[in-house]
Amino acid sequence: MLNHWIRSLSARLWVTTVVVLAASLTALASLVIYVFDHYPEQTLGRREQTENVDRVIGGIRFSDAGIPRSVDLSEREAWLYQIVPTELKYRVLDGQGHVLLASTGAEKDGPWLTGDLSGEVSKIAHVNVDGRRFSIATRRVLRGQSEFYVQTATSARFIEVLVSSKVKPIPATVRVVFFVAVVIFGWALLFTIRRMLKPLRDASDAAAQITPRHLKTRLSTLGVPSEIKPLINAFNEALERLENGFLVQQQFLAAAAHEFQTPLTLIRGQIELQPEIRERDLLFREIDLMSRQVRQLLHLAEASEAQNFDFGEVDIVDVAQDVVAYLARKADGKQVTLRVDERGAAPSIWADKSALFILLKNIVENAINASPAHGIVLLTVDGISIEICDEGPGIQKDHLPFLFRRFWRAPDARHDGAGLGLAICKEIASVHDWRLTVNSLSIGTRFTVWL
After folding, report:
1. What is the value of pTM for the model shown?
2. Which range marks the domain in which residue 70 is found?
3. Residues 385-413: what's their mean pLDDT?
4. How many domains are there within the chain?
5. Which residue has the higher pLDDT, 260 or 178?
6. Is the pLDDT of residue 360 over 90?
7. Do 160 and 282 reside in the same domain of the chain?
8. Which of 32, 83, 260, 305 is 20 to 30 Å from the Cα of 215, by its Cα?
9. 90: Cβ–Cβ under 8 A, 6 or more apart, which residues?
10. 239 located within any domain
């Protein structure tokens, strides 16, 4: 599970993005804290002084003659000028620099700045007032044809205390914001990635459903990102080539099997007409074996194409009895008893009768070959399955995964065959959506067709 998560594209993308975000936020927060800590006056102090001037300008009330008559500030701002009149002051001056309005105590000071006030507009000057260092901010105010100036004076000590009170909570605030931002972004990114990769997951699920019986299926490119579309198109083209190759293979298999039948029949007939041929029984045995393999190839070609099946209502017990009757001679020759055990009412299923016959015949024939003399091969039929049990030596566990492979034969196989019988059974079961399982018992083997 952990290895799957580590190799996951979604996980890698999520981790990479969150790490980059965390690193970026950390670098940005460190830079902001550094600037505020080392250049407080140039950042928060300058901004505070500029805002103070703007508040004073916004509070000026003019007379009908256009002369400033009062400064109306908010309760908090007025209280601030009253509580620390020695640290925070303001003045309203006329064009010649005469004080018209001032905060408490500010009217007694001499000129804060010397020279032409127009040259100090929008600047912050640092001067000594009564032996203490102040920062003076100056702004021009126009009222009709008249010109006025507004100045605020903030002591260096007040700026230091003010900036310190604002900078001190910043690291804790940054940590909280950092954590909340990473968590929210992480969840949002997870949802986004899952949504972005959904077309790829859908394509993967569709590809997993493609089997040799569903080679006509193609992956949809609807909603697929443009970067992935070439991959989907290439996969669909590969499926088309695979389908064509599979059809050619099946056609060749069926054609070859048909072509072999007639020559084998003619060869057998020719041998029967020439009694002088030596070892005729051996030749007949080989011809019969080849004919059996040709029939199996035909069955395999037919079972690999769903359109070759003719479905209808089928009585399972009738088919099982037909199989027993068909293989009775072979069973008698091996001194094996065939028996059908019907449990409950005879079930009827929707299936291809001929295909079911071939499936059961192949398994029962293998069971006869594996059974010892005087052994029993039992077919048990109920409403959900068909079981075929023999009393042979059983199948080695390491051979079980290979039983249904085409042309696979156990190294210790004691009877002739091409290794196609169980492969045909598997194909027939797949077309009917049945499960075919095999278990090696303490005595013998049990094949089960789950209907």
Report:
1. 0.46
2. 40-167
3. 85
4. 4
5. 178
6. yes
7. no
8. 260
9. 52, 53, 56, 71, 81, 102, 103, 106, 150, 151, 152, 153
10. no
- Amino acid 208 reads A
Count Cβ neighbours within 10 Å for each residue of 270-281 and write b for 16 or more, e otherwise: eeeeeeeeeeee
**267 and 408 together in one domain:** no
Q: Is residue 226 part of a domain?
A: no
Angle between helix 280-303 and 229-272 (nearest 10): 150
Q: Please state, in angstroms and rounded to a whole number, the distance separating the CA atoms of residues 317 and 14.
A: 59
Residues 30-58: tens digit of each pLDDT: 877 777 666 665 666 677 888 889 999 99
CA distance 323 to 368: 12
Read off the tokens for 435.
Answer: 């499960």
Residue type, position 281, single letter: D
Domain identity same for 254 and 327:
no
Q: Note whether residue 219 is domain-resident.
A: no
Does any domain span residue 221?
A: no
What does DSSP assign to residue 402? G
Q: pLDDT digit string (tens) for 110-152?
A: 888 888 888 888 888 888 888 888 989 999 999 888 899 999 9
**Same-domain status, 15 and 83:** no
**What is the pLDDT, as a whole number, of residue 251?**
61
